[in-house]
Amino acid sequence: MTTLVLLWGNNIHNKSWIQEVNQELLPFYDTTHIQIYRHWNTWEWNMDLEYECNELYNYLKEISGNIILFCKSLWCLLALKTMIEKDIFIKQCVFVWFPLGFSELHSFPIKEYLKKLTCPIVRIQHTNDPAWGYTTIAEKLWSLSPAFICKEIPGETHDYPEVKVLKQIILDTNIQ
After folding, report:
1. 3 state DSSP class of 105
2. 23-68 pLDDT per residue, tens
3. What is the CA radius of gyration of the chain?
4. pTM here?
5. CA distance 45 to 104
6. Could you report the per-residue pLDDT of 92-145, keeping only the tens digit for each?
7. How far is CA 67 from CA 79, 92, 111, 141, 157, in A?
8. Domains and CATH numbers, the chain
9. Which distant-in-sequence residues (6+ apart) come within 8 Å of 84 by Cβ?
10. Angle, to 10 degrees, between the axis of helix 49-60 and the axis of helix 75-85?
11. Helix (H) or strand (E) run with residue 114 in it
């Protein structure tokens, strides 16, 4: 049994997007789960990473079978933190963009986490994502961890409306 867990970005405007992603990917997994974050109930912008890490861990530890994480933006860090600090096995991850600049700015132990990473990660990113471009992040990630498979798609936004393209990349890289 394989469960796809979707972690869908820091901003609540991503809600309809992740529901669309879920609909596209649902036929390929036994179950899917969209994680809900506490800070959205208060309409605050910043997450409590420790709280959300514990919430995600509490959910993941109850799943039997394989777990695949689909994460967007800042929530890629939540996934890494949960995998490494809570020592939970994840079969594969899909990261849509990767917040390398944020992790460096906030002294997030990204190098330590990536050295301990045990699952393959497919990272999908727009060529010119304004948060950081594809090439900049790809070069830095490859130097930190060989676990990343980087896929570039044309685009100049931090939104990723190309849900069918994302789905095809996931299917082509055999994330199941």
Report:
1. helix
2. 999 999 999 999 988 766 665 556 788 999 999 999 999 999 999 9
3. 15
4. 0.92
5. 20
6. 999 999 888 888 888 889 889 988 988 999 999 999 999 888 998 888 888 888
7. 12, 7, 23, 23, 29
8. 2-172 (3.40.50.1820)
9. 112, 113, 116, 117
10. 60
11. helix 110-116
